[in-house]
Fold this sequence. Notes:
Layout: H1 15-27, H2 32-39, H3 43-51, H4 53-62, H5 74-97, H6 107-110
Helix pairs in contact: 1-4, 2-3
Amino acid sequence: MNEKQVCKKRKCMSLEVKIEIINKHTEQKITSPKLAKEYYVNACTISTILSSKTKILEHYKKNLAGPEKKLINSKEAIDRINELKQFFLNKKDDNSNSSFTKQPPIIVFFQKN
């Protein structure tokens, strides 16, 4: 009787988890097999992550997950959307009564501190 192998679904590991694995390996000196058991992946997956450590760290620094990214909560986002809506409504009213004047780029509006 032939048994068919059941293929496992691939797991997608987030960038943060990969960084966590790299940090545990370098700082706490946890071995690849132990990390593999902890994260329920094969040891070769951990080895692949560790071998591409520089690429992952570089991507992390460039990526939105890096420290430059400022996260805003939903209330702040809604407030900004409402301000933007009001801004455009005011500009629509202003432009309907006068000729078009050049305005600063919209990105200036979002660069609040």
